[in-house]
Amino acid sequence: MSLWPNGCFAGKHVLVTGGTSGIGLGVAKAFLAEGAIVTATGVSLAEVGDTAEAVPGLRTALLDVRNAAEIESLLASLPSLSHVVNCAGVIRRGAEHDPDVFADVIDINLTGTMRICAAARAKLKEARGTIVNTASVLSFFGGGLVPGYAASKGGVAQLTKSLAIAYAPDGIRVNAVAPGWIETPLTAALRENADRNAAILARTPLGRWGNPDDIAGGVLYLSSPLASFVTGAVLAIDGGYMAV
Length: 244
Fold this sequence. Notes:
alpha/beta; seven-stranded parallel sheet
C-alpha cells in the first residue's frame, strides 16, 4: 500500500546518484515502490549490472560524478526529471590527511553534488521538482580520521541552503538529509570493531544502527507535496545521536 495516498510519485522520473548500493539503493527502491521511474547510478559495471538484475524495474547507469560530460549525457537521455537525490559519495578513513586524497573526496562528495544539481536544474525547473542531497551528522561534528569527508559534508549542508535560495525562483525545492550511523558497506568496518560499535550504540538514544529504509522515508517526505513549504532544510535522521 502506498505511503502517499495521492500517488504523487507515480510515473515521475527520479535520478538517484550512488543508487546501486547502501543508502542510495534504499532510496531508489522506495521511489520505485511508489510507482516512480527510477534511474540509479553506480561507479562499477559489476555493481550496476548486479543491481539491475536484483531489482526488477530499476534503471541503472554507470556514472562518475567527477565527469561533467558523463553527467550531461545521462541528463540528456532522460525525457523529464522531477526528483534528484544525490547519494554518490566516498570515505577514505585515515588516508584523507593526504591532500590529494582529501581533494578527491571533496571532488566526489561536494563538487560532484554541485555538478549534478547544476546539470539537472533546467529539467527540474520544467517539473517544478526537488533535490535532496546527502549530508551527514559529520556536517556538524569534526572527524579526526576523515577530514575530507567531514569537510565535504559540511559543504553539502551549506550548498543545500545556498541552492535552496538560488533555485527557489525556478520552483525547485532543495533540501538534505543528514544520516547518522547507518548499516551500509561504508560503515562495515565500524560495526565490526566491537569498541567503536559499542560507543556508537551507547550514544544513540534509540539504541540501534539505522538502515537505508530509515533514510528513504525522510527523502520521500522532502520530495513530496507534504513538504511543499520546506526548502533549505537539513534533516537529521540519526536515532537521536545529535541530541545527546
